[in-house]
Amino acid sequence: METASVIVIASFGSLGDLHPFLALGQELRRRGHTVRVATTPFYRERIEALGFEFRPLGPPVSPEDPALLHTLMRTARGPEYLIRRLFLPHLPEIYRDLEAACVGAQLLVAGEVLFVAPLLAEKTGIPWVSVLLSPISFLSKYDPPVMPLLGSSAALSGLPPIFHRVVLGLARGALRRWQRPLAKFRKELGLPPQRDGLVRGKFSADLVLALFSKHFAAAQRDWPAATVQPGFVFFEQGQLQQPTGPAGVQAARLEAFLQAGKPPVVFTLGSAAVHAPGNFFHMSAEAAQRLKLRAVLIAGHANLRELETPDILVIPYADYRQLFPRVGAVVHQGGIGTTAEALRAGVPSLVVAFNFDQPDNAARVQRLGVGVSLPRRRYNRRHAHYALHRLLRDAGLRDKAGELAGKIQAEDGLSAAADAVEKLLAPVLPDGPAARRAVTL
Q1: 247-280: per-residue pLDDT in tens?
Q2: Number of domains in the chain
Q3: Assessment of whether the complete model's pTM goes beyond 0.85
Q4: Side-by-side strand order, sheet with 207-210
């Protein structure tokens, strides 16, 4: 590309939430654009190690704080706490951070919890892209999601339409009640009132990217007209690993374990729930022992070496892309990143959903016939044992998982997403007719 452009990629959440944004940023940089990444200072070192300009953004909390993650992941009001306690009280500060990050930029790419992104775009005129990582984000009445409070049962999808209309109405009603600080801040910025700002804001973008496969959740007619669905966008996690040091030692331990016997079952809680696991790993180790399985527990910072046996390996981290194709099954929390990696690998899943989009993702995995789901509250000795037993004995699950993996692997979500961004960006490059829309202070 002859003309350089400056793109700000802004996201807040766990490392798994950030990964698709980093992958997109790398692809846009490869195509000649300058990319700034605005996110929590907690990830500054990782961002700069990838060669991006870093800008601080978000509420002053660590996305790996165990007490915070317990509230978000293991309590029914986790989503409310995230929105009403962590984001809405800090709108002015987050707005200022984002405004500073966007100085001189031609485009903003933002995650959905950055409620100030549509406000900044409306105020300054900068074009922007809203990135939605999970189907639940669309709240479609034609593909009704399983809401967090209702658990992870796929049977909910078979209930009458009136049930789903009521549930979605309640969800939207709650968001309307929560949005008073957002309405107040809009007024302070001199912007006109907006009804349902917490929902409509993310749909008001010039481009809405649905970064999940159509084979996982198809586009619906009540999605915004500006929506493009490229597919899953994968960040190759090995880029952040070093061949020597602690990470290298753990990788060597894992490789030796994989080569020592039959494919194991992996138990993992992604990048967020792993910091508030409760008894998940202890129940998992006990179920693996009862079924005489080889197992890998990916336990994060938790010190669970006492659970190790000759057939059970405990490690803090693993590259899912390298590991999942070599295992018999994956037991996970249903986060969209972990779910996508399991689908790409073609291995069946037992999804133990915690909160947020996870119950909906769990229900979709079960409806697709590539896994089974079990609510977190029922993940005990008895139910974990029987769910794993079913998962490993059902050849149909593995066959369907392999079939779906072929379809997902055939998609090039990263290139398609970057193409869509560049199509939007073309008229606003520095020598284009809308160059004046770059943010200035």
Answers
A1: 788 999 999 999 999 999 999 999 999 999 999 9
A2: 2
A3: yes
A4: 53-56, 34-39, 6-10, 107-111, 128-132, 207-210, 227-228
